[in-house]
Amino acid sequence: MTDTLAYYNNNADAFVESTFQVSMEELYQAFLPQVREGGHILDAGCGSGRDALFFDHKGYRVSAFDGSDAIASLAREKTGLSVQHRYFTDIHESSTYDGIWACASLLHLPLAEVPEAIGRLWNALKPDGVFYMSFKIGTGERNHNGRHFTDADESLAQQWIQDLPGFESSRLWRTDDQRPDRHEQWLNILLTKVPAPQNKLTTGGAEHHFLPKLCQAIKAADRIDMAVAFVKTTGLNLLFPDLVSALQRESDPARIRILTSDYLDITDSEALRKLVLLHDHGAQVRVYQSQGSSFHLKAYLFAGHVQNHQMWGRAFIGSSNISRQALQDGLEWNYQVDFPPDPGYLEAASRFEELFKHPNVVPLTDNWIDEYEKRRNPPEKSLEPGSDEKQEVPTPNEVQQEALEALDLTRVEGYRRGLVVLATGLGKTWLSAFDAVQMGARRILFVAHREEILYQAAETYLRIKPNSRVGFYMGKQRDRTVDILCASVQTLGKETHLDRFDPRHFDYIVVDEFHHAAAPIYHRLLSYFAPQFLLGLTATPDRTDRSDILSLCDDNLVFEYPLFEGVKGQFLVPFHYYGIYDETVDYTEIPWRNGKFDPNLLANKLATYGRAKHVLKVWSEEKQSRTLAFCVSRVHADFMASRFAKKGIRAAAVHGESEMSRGEALEKLENGQLDVIFSVDLFNEGVDLPAIDTVLLLRPTESKILFLQQIGRGLRKSVSTGKDKLVILDFVGNHQSFLHKPQALIGQAMNHRQLAEFARKAEKNQLDLPDGCFINYDLEVIDFLKGLDHQGAEKDYQVLKDTLGRRPTLTEYYHFGASIAKTRKLHGSWFGLVRDMEDLTVIETELLSRYETFLLEVETTAMSKSFKMILLDAFQQLGGWRSPPKLSKLAHASWETLKRRPRLYQEIAVSVKDVDGSSAQWQQYWKKNPVDHWTNKSPAVFEIENDQFKPVIELEGDEIPPFEEMVQELIDYRLASYEARQSAKQEQSSSENVVPITPSGTELPYFPSLKIACGHFRNSHAEEPEYRSIGLGHGRIEPNRHFIARASGNSMNGGKQPIQDGDYLLLEQINPNQAGSITGKTLAIERMDEAGDTQYLLRTVRKSPVGEYRLEAANPEYEDIIVTPELLEQFRTFARFCEIIDPLEMAVGQEIPREDIPELFGATFNPGNWQSGHVFLKDANAHILLVTLNKQGKGVQHRYVDHWIDERTFHWQSQNSATPQSKRGRELIEHKKLGLSVNLFVRENKLRNGKAAPFTYFGPVEYQSHEGSNPMSVIFKLRS
To answer: What pLDDT, on a 0 to 100 scale, did the predictor assign at position 991?
Structure first.
């Protein structure tokens, strides 16, 4: 066979040219009539591709392969079909093809291998399929012109086919060779396989689900009709993704009609609201109003056309309504009717048409559902399987609960906007829905830039608020009278649409994927609306990415829970990341424009045999059980699936045009029927895939967000599979476009120098990762990253630009850690650098040249307060460059902006803090401050004319938008950098005002166990131990002799002074020769037996009247040890036990994270309980006060007055609900009498370096006095 393949590889051109035009019409006429219309044909050993092309033109779906790589390549070129290089031994498919064509191909196999090859092909043939093959007439084997031939006659052919399983019939006949100058005869063999058993009945149960049949039919059909007695949300959720996919097909979307009823009021309202969402996607949904009559239909009808336009139809008639039980594991019978040949389908379709137009049938609308909810009275008992199913009521997880409390607190503090950062997989949209309910919002606006996000949000909100009306504002849809409006920013962000709403129409606004909000269209929408609260949501991993957008949320970062925190908190599984060098692709050869590779050239570079071989090798070594792979195109996905399938791996490509639907693929993957799904973009986000345990990244990603979304598909925990980690196999190339991936993974922005340092740490396994996580890069990737080790303004700018996929803003550049001063020194200004990097547009360049002085003034003007920038910000919001605002309007807009930013509002004078923004007093104050500054400058930039704040700068109409953007970019930077400086000053000032506790006792060496303590004292070169502090009241303590160690075991857990496992023990180091003076004392003893094994004991020494020593355990379950002369040699006494130390005593003066505080009191951290500032621990009889001194400008009615009166006295104010008569109030006042402790933990600020700040423990405090109620103020004193 090897010689034969070499012959065809060397003579490929001549062979293809000599065979491509040969007529095979007679053979086609024998073969094709027996293949199902539009069926799937395998051309096995396709040669020039002549026959494959003919079948393709006739409307059949064709797969083709050839054993000669050269011929397969030429066949691809001549036919345009995806011809594979493959051998007969690679055929592993089962029941895949409707027809198999092996024309003059099997004859090149050795005689002994022919039966096996025929068997493989026969196994790949579907029941009722047809198999054609041909041989030259003769007997035996021969070689001719460098090729091997196995000839056959009828007798030999019968031997090959007689034992094929499922063999139905055969036809054998001879024909003459059709090529010129050839006089040979051919034996033609045509075999048919028996049809499969009818298998028309789906019976349900664990092994025969109805759901896969429906998913397959939805995927294939152009027209879908369903008529069911009732619909439950549990069942609709199973069908919804595939129904939506059918409606959203790029070419020829499906027509979907659904008819349900109000029969017995079983259909639940939430399911009806969700069907309205399906209507918004394009489906027709109607309801049969039963009016006392019955409606028991359960019919599903599907129709489509094959490539020759012949119609097909399929109906399922049976017992399944749309419920989870009926579609999955319930025992439900549904009979399948196929047309052709069964005309029963046509009858069912005709009856559906009649019923859909019945007088009792009405369109499903929100109004109809409102009325249905009022009169609905569902049966108390289940009448049919699944009729009493209820969707589980969603509740917040622990992270969401923690975020909800932070959001509630930020509103109490006076903020009206805030940003929440949650790692992919932790439920950002769910959080927003929970918060809207928490706030009591009546009208909600959810904004995003993609329709699929809006549809997913609508589904989520319906789960939380099932009785709400949900509508859309996108494309041509303009819903307004709804409770929840999901709007695309591209539509609603236009002024003509904004004007249709009152600015205060919505109570609560959510902007998803807020990292996009720096775009002007978002600015317009955010400036227009004035909700009670606006929430920005993002998963962007670091401050650089969100620095520009944080200003749009008034620089209020409410809550952050990035990827690493998700893993540490065990909400996400740990990951093992492999950065694999993409050795077969040179990315520098692919054009890179506007942050993206040329898509066609990229796809060609990635879909190669060499790369597929490399991918397969790596995947085979590192994969787990269920893999989701991301490809760059549909062709790439199909190619990879075929290469994996060739190796016997159960793989499928899933995309808009794939044979397998998304729902079917996911079910097969989860059930273990598939190993790998190759996808393009169907699974980037919005799909819950907890079963995925391996993610295979086979394409570059344009952003950190996309990268995190892709790996996030597998980070969720899985109850069904119990996976313990996610394996990420990422193919990394030699190109700047890959630099954002390490930054996204560890959640930090890095310039070139920092990326090089990251590589060095990765190389040495020194990265700081959550437990269970692992990052490994191939050495080629390490070397690529280490080669970036250079810096400078231009380099920092370039790496940030490459990371973002666009030019950075000044705020992003600032948070990136670049030197602004050096940048100005080299380039004159920020926009000078942007100009020198050739990133300004023509208009921006012209504006910079004309108004550089003003722009530099905005960039550099001194700021002792924020007012100058607040005024410019308000001026821009009012469109001042186009239409100068009245001073009164400008002052009021500035006041509104300050009110949204409580930290900056604190800067205004006390005399105007309580006045309204439209008052004359405020306007006069504002004029004396920033207005006078901007109008009295030389040269003047603004002037006051007719009581208007008017710019002196003259701009043409098309110059205004870019100029506004340039000015806004500078304003955002100035406010962000100003607030950062003020926070730093505030922290320093606050730290100086609070007197930190300095423990009045002594610091002693601390050891986690007696073993470690003994080893330390024995080794004169031991490392410096950790130290812990204890207070007074322990007698004379000497640090050179006393130390602290933790007890191990319970041998002394008994008697008057029990020592429990884990107790902190105060011990005194002693000399073993002092044993005579320690009778009756408890000692720490090292024992080494004859085998060299060592024990560390804590025992009390007793001496009998006859002088015998005994080591006594306080716990009666442990035996005493009689010290014989032999044992005495094994013992070494090294410390005397003094007393047990209270762990709280050692914590005084220490900084302790919130989550570690419960452990001090023997409790477990629960985010829901421990976000409060006052926690009571019943088991410990302890009140815990958690105080943040700088509460960042709470509203007057909620402002807590917590402060130090002197170095030992603290003024604490309760929340508004506390009174002296309430249970908690009484316990604080009478804590001594009730045997309760009150423990004080204080921190200056909520955040430190962008993360939650720890608390300092000031120890137990004692009540002194109190005053007031709702809230009450209490004076506590630190214990001496």
So the answer is: 42
